[in-house]
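We both want to read discrete structure tokens more fluently, so let's practise on a single case. Would you write everything just below, so we can both look at the same thing?
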Amino acid sequence: MRRATRHPVDYPVIAEHRDRGDLSMHIANVSAHGFMIDNAAELQRGERVIIRLPVIGRIEAYVIWVSEERAGFQFERIVRLDDFMKMMDILQPNPRLRNRR
């Protein structure tokens, strides 16, 4: 079961992978616990990456599921709710897409 609401975004990032170096990823949705990409090039469950997000900064995440071109990641550490909401103000500039506060 999902623990947190997914927020749709359109956010390209460069991820640091220990073995593969820099990987281009496209984040399609994000929650306080993780994110989903829609261009998972040969990633496998358990692999780890480091990405940089607005407000939050560098954060490590690991692959928890892969399905075709999509992959879901869980953040390695907890993201504070106030920081998450500030980040969403940047990632979702359209206020109609944001959850009501």
Summary: Residues 81-91 form the longest helix (11 residues). The chain has one helix and six strands.
